[in-house]
Design goal:
Elements: H1 2-10, H2 14-40, H3 46-63, H4 70-97, H5 99-112, H6 114-122, H7 131-154, E1 159-160, E2 169-171, H8 176-197, H9 202-217, H10 222-245, H11 252-267, H12 273-287, H13 301-307, H14 311-315, H15 319-325, H16 328-341, H17 344-349, E3 354-356, E4 362-364, H18 370-402, H19 414-430, H20 438-455
Antiparallel strand pairs: 1-2, 3-4
Helix pairs in contact: 2-3, 2-7, 3-6, 4-5, 4-18, 6-18, 6-20, 7-8, 8-9, 8-10, 8-19, 8-20, 9-11, 10-11, 10-19, 18-19, 18-20, 19-20
Length: 467
Amino acid sequence: MIKNDISQFKTLNAYTRILIVFILINPIIDVITSIGIREYNITLSIGILLKGLFLIYTVIAFLRTSSTSKIDKIAKYILFAFIIYAAVHSLLSLQSFGFSRTVSGGITMVKTFYLPLVILSLYKLIDKKDITLLTRALVYSAAFVASIIALSMLTGTDYNAYKYGKTGTVGWFFAANEVSALLGILTPILIYFILEKLKANPVVKIMIISAYTFLYYQIGTKVVALSVIMTVFYVIVLFILRKVKDRKLYILKPVVTLSVLFIVSMGLVPVTPIGINLNLHNRLIIDRYEDNIDEENPESDEDIKNDFGIEEILDNEEVLMSLVFSGRDEYFTIRKFIYDRASTTEKLFGLTQFAVTNNNQIKSYIIEIDYFDIFFNFGIIGSIFYWVIVLGSLGYAVRNAFRNWRIFEPSSILPYYLCSVILAFGIAMFAGHVFVSPSVSFYLALIISILTVESNNKNNKKRLSLT
């Protein structure tokens, strides 16, 4: 299979070859970035640099495509309008907060808008005939991430997923939420490949997916268990709906396989870090133990209470909300307080990423609920740009996928990619690090782009001018 993939790889155009290589080396880039930060205090992330270069290359490749399509022209107009918005946002930030904060905000903008900009460009640069190879590249990438976690644990060189209080590992990666989200959205595609494409008996398939699930569960976040359990349940329902659509379809073997996997995925919870951490969550209700998974919010609870003199508001936060959102609700309260005090211009262009505290310090706060971080960081205009691109592309793809019920066709990959998108939107709410982290959003952009191209009935002829 791999030999055949290599042969197909050689026949691809230059951009698609670079895209597949980038998919495969992303885990390596993230590991190098993590080790650089943890061991050598290298603040300049090689990951952001390489991913930024790939973004520029992708946008330029898109702009160089020749097309008379109305949609393509609109996409290019949106891209140029966004560049104007980004320039105005940066100038206003420079005026209000100085050069260093503007640079920091600019990096945040690149990380945040990585998803819509790649989506805007990528759907024109991939061909329907290449989707099989791209799917395999995503599967290999997920397997590679799981293998890195396994190797780091076997050698005793893995990093803890939590600063204190909980158990879990991120392998050699940096952030537990990012790795959880990445594997979460890739899990449906991995299950599709093993379940519907891998030529092996059901026992072997169960063993492979169970081993992957066990490794994934070692991270210990809530996202992990929900991703696997919900995916397996989703696929069981999918096969039942396929049977309803086509009574002659044989589904007994895959449904039995999935049912066993569902039991395994539930049974592994108590004996893995997820179960241990869930017990800590239960104790939260009793003693208001504070979860500290935040890698990007290093300040203590007392620190943020004193920044704006709103201790009473934060002290009244519901314990259940703190439990569900792992303390993120308090950062939302802070961000909303800053936003409410902002001027109309700041609300429009998103200058509430930074704020001057009662001690005249300029600080930034991250909620780690992606929807709110996007809105507060980039304002009404930035949010409109973001969601018009993402939801517009996704809506077009979903409409085509459900047209004539193509999504329920036997062996169709469409429902699995749709499952990945559903998981991504859920994870973005409860754990973050999906829409605003290029390590994850790159894969999501690719998934949405593939969903768009695959769901399109028309032959997707290449108009790429790059060689």
